[in-house]
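On to our target:
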Amino acid sequence: MTNQQPHSLNRREALRSAACGFGGLALAGLTSQASLAAGTHFAPKAKRVVMLFMHGGVSQMDSFDRKPILNREHGKPLPFELPGLIRPDRLGKVFGVKWKWTQHGECGQWVSELFPHTAKIIDKLCLIKSLHTEGEAHGQAVLRLHTGEAAFVRPSMGAWVSYGLGSGNDDLPAYVALDYPTMHGGVRLYGSSFLPAKHQAMPIKLARSANKLPEIQNLSSDLLSATRQREQVEAITGLSRLHATASGGDAQLEGVIESYELAYRMQSIAPEVLDLGRETQETLAMYGVDQEPTDVFARQCLLARRMAEAGVRFIQVATGYHWDHHGNIELNMPTSAAQTDKPVAALIEDLDRRGLLDDTLVVWAGEFGRTPVAQIDRGNPGRDHNPHGYTIWMAGGGVKPGYSHGATDDFGYLAVENKVHMHDLHATILHLLGLDHERLTYRYAGRDFRLTDVYGRVVDEVIA
């Protein structure tokens, strides 16, 4: 996959022109339903990714990175400077943690009392406690998490995965984004940039829909019959192919053509995948559907599982923008945790009991962490942004279960042990999917681009 060039052949044309034909492809295991093998550089451990984005930035020292010194030193000056912060003037003294901590599972991982459901599945999780990135502002950090770059428009991580692997279901997109935010990057968080258009995520509205049901814009038409729609798609496709041939091939146009064809095919399968009513009452209750305060995020997580089960390659799920706890963290942190803890744990358990967790990589991450000192300009204190050392976790998909990697300093501010940069995280996610981040490239404007740019290393220590 090194130095891949934009191409003008679609899958059908490529298969027709291949000398081996379908027989040879079958021997290699390269059917449309197993297209993963066709794009990998080596044997993958994961077939798909579910990314759970905690929008706003979760405080690591209030969730999974226990720092007892914060309570012992509460109210005292921090004994070192806070490098790299834009507004150190609005920060005060060391700020203690309000919650009780308990060790859980065979791994003995410490978990805050705010995450009782996640605590029950802690032996399935692989924590990285030394992630660091650039960008103290949300816009920068959110874009780096999703695209690897903040200053320029670049393809999102899911678009790169779609480009490298394609979809696991010919009638569904390779990439979907559930209730993704319009702020801090907007469409760039799930866009394809200079990659062909078909690699952009299909956005689905759920939390903001009037009836709490998943919505895909223009999925069906009440004006045209299925036959008439097919004729319309074929007419548009025919004209587009004439234009592509006359222009000598255009990967972007080819992507648009395939998007039209996929949109037509989706009408038959998408309604079934989106129908949460097909789930049992036991499953709905496990996620927290129709319960408060979990209902909104429960529906998102449950739909993510249905998408993974149906063959979608990369699924992004975003919370509301409620983790940004600059002030009143004593009230707001428990509220945010309560909305998400049960649905997230249910997703892991549900994937596991259906035999999907082994080859589904779940990534739980915010754009950065928080400071060990109080922010003092917001009334009741909270914590400011901290991109220099924070915690995320992964589960399934070939990572070590019940494992903790890296560490921050005693106060939880700087990553100091086994540091993992955002580029390293991206390289590791691609590796688990069977993709070499240095070989997954796309030539644009005379240069080869990749998700990790010229950086990144695979964090072998977290791989099972």
